[in-house]
Amino acid sequence: MGESMPCNVTTADWQPAAFPADLEAARHLREWLDDPSYSLYGIEQDFRGADLSGGDFSGGWFIGARLAGVRLAGAEFYRADLQSADLTGADLTGACLVKATLDEAVMRSARLDGADMVGADLHEVDAAGASFRGTRISGASLLGVDLRGADLTDAVMSENSFKVRVDDTTVVRGLTGTVFGPIIVVSGDASRELAGGELEAWIRARGGDVQVIPPRRQAG
Fold first, then answer.
1. What's the structural domain count of the chain?
2. How many angstroms separate the Cα of 152 from the Cα of each of 8, 10, 29, 114?
3. CA 15, 67, 185, 162 torsion-angle sign
């Protein structure tokens, strides 16, 4: 796989449709807009109430940032660091998360429909109830990700580490591509691990068509 590149185009005169309610976060954002030659430093900042759709935050630092409910549709987060960020209910429709780091982020009920997540890192992410409809997830690491109640309708996978938790409310209709398993299927207080043909059959029975690649073919 070649080097992934940013996927969205942002005009030089971009301005947010709404600034964060938090005065400190708004000040940081305004200072960055005045001099966007450096990456936005948003570590532990509270961006709630903002509409940052279409912004270019490539290489930005959002570790521990509060982004719950923030509109980020079409935003560019190429190589951005969103570790431990709270993205609960955030709108990331069509966002570029290529090579973004999302380890330990909270993405419950977030909307990532049509997002590009090539090469993204998602370790121990809570994405329960999130929507990944039509999302492109290629060469990414989904390890310990909670996808219970998530919607992966028509998402496209390609050689992803896919050690996730799902349940009967996880939607995989139209899910295609290749993954490395196994996954854990949770049912009440019980759980079971599925890999190989069993995992393929589980997805196929729910309207998806995914090939599970044997671990010996996984790099590293």
1. 1
2. 22, 27, 33, 11
3. positive
pLDDT in tens, 155-166: 999 988 889 999
**Residue where the block lists tokens 């890192």:** 121
Q: Is residue 35 part of a domain?
A: no
Token code pair at residue 91: 């709108």
CATH number, domain with residue 200: 2.160.20
DSSP states along 100-154: -B-TT-B-TT-B-TT-B-TT-EEES-B-TT-B-TT-EEES-EEEEEE-TT-B-TT
Domain presence at residue 48? yes
pLDDT of residue 215: 64
Tally of CB atoms within 10 A around 19: 19
Which residue in this structure is represented by tokens 């896919």? Answer: 162
Q: What is the pTM of this model?
A: 0.91
